[in-house]
Specification:
The protein is flat, with a radius of gyration of 38 Å. It is mainly alpha-helical and about 100 residues long. It has helices spanning about 1-20, 35-55, 80-95. The protein is built from three helices and no strands.
């Protein structure tokens, strides 16, 4: 049990020291490309960019549930001010 506790303490103390170690890259940069390879890469990139320009912009709806609705959204009800003025006129004519 003492051995387990000592191992845990050493692990906790070694964490910050491990974080301060320098980053060592064992794989150095690979061989550089030849001028022909660079030209081929540039040509490939140019063709890729031209192809991207040919793709049309999609104007799709952003409504994911649009196909699930059975009927279109209902429009707003007509203004109530016209209905209230008509009822006021009727009420005034019956009072005479």
């Amino acid at each position: 049990m003492k051995l387990f506790r000592m191992a845990a303490v050493l692990t906790v103390l070694a964490g910050p020291a491990y974080a301060q170690m320098p980053n060592i890259n064992l794989l150095q940069e690979g061989p550089s490309k030849t001028p022909e390879e660079r030209a081929a890469d540039a040509e490939r990139d140019k063709a890729y960019k031209e192809t991207l320009k040919k793709i049309p912009d999609s104007k799709a709806s952003n409504d994911p549930w649009g196909g699930m609705r059975s009927d279109p959204p209902k429009q707003a009800a007509p203004k109530a001010s016209a209905a209230t003025s008509a009822t006021k006129k009727k009420a005034g004519t019956t009072a005479n």
